[in-house]
């Protein structure tokens, strides 16, 4: 089946539609001259020879979000923006008619022999009437939508009406004559159906060449003027989708095709240059998760974003996600504040490279970007940095009481002072309060004290077959406690929702599905879980890790009390607010009411689809959100989504979200685990690269934080904006010239 991406206008003089107000509506379309187009090759028999003709009557790639990757060279700016250099409608009509006239009647005979045009036309008209009827059935809902979203809401209703029909036989018939792909019309459903009907009516004529009246009628200026009045023209709806994307995410810079969003947290404050480096690498949106950090750290991150954006003259938006009603493990009891300094050893235990330790004052900031120390120690005494020299050896007693040494190898001048790189050939455990001294001529000279060593991350390691007890609080002396079970691990979760709804036999998952278990018993204060899936050597389960109960019908409040407190900060500092774990239209109503109280009509709203309920109710969520004028977007949050809906369904689910959002002309953000191996370890997997290629269908792609985040942003930017023309030229050079037309 041929894939088509462009449409030439056809005769609309014979086909008029009545809208719900009783007015005549014409549903024309036009083609931007810069749009990438494929054409149908036809082989009419002229005389005794076969002559290759090309008739450009293809249906547009209506699915801007979900189909863009199939034509990567054609950007949104190229497709959606009007231009003086574009063909006018009359040009398109004349070109289409001339092409049809030249091709002769043979092409129509071929089509008639392939399918029953009369039957196909009747089926297409029936679908068309069903789509129109759906709009009338939902008239009361559409009236509540804001005027800015009225056309988009109607098109969404049209798309849903099309999707509820069994149109597989119709799709096959349309594919046989290369007229229309019903999987690709979501951007402009009614206009695409209307134009296809008109083209089929023209195809019923035996010969365009012998019927000059038809061509004259097609090209009359009166009919062209009528087309310009249509609200559902394909180019009009494309511009609407483009406008909605720009209102939410901001304009794209240069020739870029997608926005890049990067998540940052408090670690961004450890480096003065990280945010600037992210923007240089291609980041155009910074995301802050309100589930972590505090208003103090958020404010400083935003200050640095705005400063870097202004200095680099590169616009950068701010998205702040409300934490939402997510079930998480509570904080585990922290481990001791100790850092391990360990050199690299070979298989026999011999040191092959000493441990690299960065020493600086706590106010001096992070080490230079080109350094990768194994440990960072802060020294409280400024004299240390003025009296210590390269080559000297620092001595200390580590947390185990063993004598250790650090040899100063290099000195660096950083933004707020001086830092040293030291080496250690032995494994040491350093804690806060340890004194460093230098031995000179039989005397010891104290030079500083180690301070602010962070606590080590606490976790438990669970294995298949282990019992895990989830408590409502940290105490273990409840009457019905299952904690007395020998060998059971224990964690806490303070959310009462979990204990109120789960039942024995239901599944439960932790940490985005890394650990799975089955609930064996419940009480008011505890839940006993038998672990059924974990790593071969066990899997770590730490603080603030997600808990999912896909088999339970949990009734969460959509916007929590914490969200309302955070919303005060978000509304005054961010460009967009992310609604986490949206499940029902009530969640949208509560948020809209809060924004209306604050008179915030320009704050962008991003619906994060990460639950089964949110996915199944996406059309209703969009229609509810369209009742306000706020810019609107959708995020495919793939962390919890496959855990809730099933891993094997993820690909289909994300495609469906792209299609539904495309029909509503709403931009989509593709999120979670994008280039995760590259972000964490510096090397991507092959599957991650192809995932990014699929993600090009979305308006924005999000990266999570990690050690190699700047490199990952740069790589993502290169993939998204790669020179596809050069690639096509390289492939073309491999094809024998005799096969090229």
UniProtKB/TrEMBL annotation:
Q: What SUPFAM superfamilies does this protein map onto? A: Phosphoenolpyruvate/pyruvate domain, PK beta-barrel domain-like
Q: What is its cofactor?
A: K(+)
Q: Which InterPro entries match?
A: Pyr_Knase (IPR001697), Pyrv/PenolPyrv_kinase-like_dom (IPR015813), Pyrv_kinase-like_dom_sf (IPR040442), Pyrv_Knase-like_insert_dom_sf (IPR011037), Pyrv_Knase_brl (IPR015793)
Q: Which Gene3D superfamilies match?
A: Phosphoenolpyruvate-binding domains
Known EC number(s)?
2.7.1.40
Query: Which Gene Ontology molecular-function terms are recorded?
Result: ATP binding; kinase activity; magnesium ion binding; potassium ion binding; pyruvate kinase activity
- Report the domain of life of the source organism: Eukaryota
Domain annotation Pyruvate kinase barrel: ranges: 258-335, 479-704
Which pathway?
A: Carbohydrate degradation; glycolysis; pyruvate from D-glyceraldehyde 3-phosphate: step 5/5
Asked if the record carries the keyword Nucleotide-binding, the reply is yes
- Region Disordered, residue ranges: 56-78
* Keyword entries, A-Z: ATP-binding, Glycolysis, Kinase, Magnesium, Metal-binding, Nucleotide-binding, Pyruvate, Transferase
Q: What class of enzyme is it?
A: transferase
Family note: Belongs to the pyruvate kinase family.
Protein name, please?
pyruvate kinase
Native organism? Hibiscus trionum
